[in-house]
Amino acid sequence: MSTNTIQCPFCQTVSNSGLRVCPGSNCGATIIYGATDKELQNAFTQSGSITFISLILLQLIGPTLINGQFNLNIPQMFGLGFYGVIASGVLAWWMAVRSRASSEASMSGLVRFFRFMPRV
């Protein structure tokens, strides 16, 4: 099998790369190359959301924990106020962009086959 061909794991049909549906008789498996737009969007959204929530919680809870442990007087949001929310948003966006790029790079060149299997 050359680099320009792919083999369906369901029907074992060998076909040229670039097809979107397996040409095997009665197979019809969907062929996906790399990451889908939905997968990339999920990586962006999940990474950004988790990062933003984590940073806000760190700014709200972190000073209280540090103050109690080390007898300090650090204000909530580390004294940044609303600018802490803006900084958290910028960092969350940057992490989301990096996560999307990482997902895209890790799935580059990957060929996947999907076929609907009815319940018996």
Describe the 3D structure:
With 120 residues, the protein is mainly alpha-helical. The protein has a domain of 72 residues. 49% of the residues lie in helices and 12% in strands. The chain is built from two helices and four strands. Strands 1-2 form a two-stranded antiparallel ribbon. Strand 1 and strand 2 form a beta hairpin. Helix 1 crosses helix 2. The longest helix has 34 residues. The model has no long low-confidence stretch (mean pLDDT 91).
Structural class: mainly alpha
Q: Strand arrangement, largest sheet?
A: 1-2
- Percentage of helical residues? 40-55%
* Strand segment count: 4
**Cα radius of gyration in angstroms:** 24 Å
State the helix count.
2
User: How would the global form be characterised?
Assistant: elongated
What's the N-to-C terminus distance? 34 Å
Average pLDDT value? 91
Low-confidence stretches: none
Give the SSE string.
EEEHHE
SSE topology sketch:
Layout: E1 5-7, E2 14-16, E3 30-33, H1 37-70, H2 82-106, E4 111-114
Antiparallel strand pairs: 1-2, 3-4
Condensed summary:
The strands form two sheets. Strands 1-2 form a two-stranded antiparallel sheet. It has a two-stranded antiparallel sheet with strand order 3-4. The protein contains two helices and four strands. 49% of the residues lie in helices and 12% in strands.
Primary descriptors:
single chain, 120 residues, mainly alpha, 2 helices, 4 strands
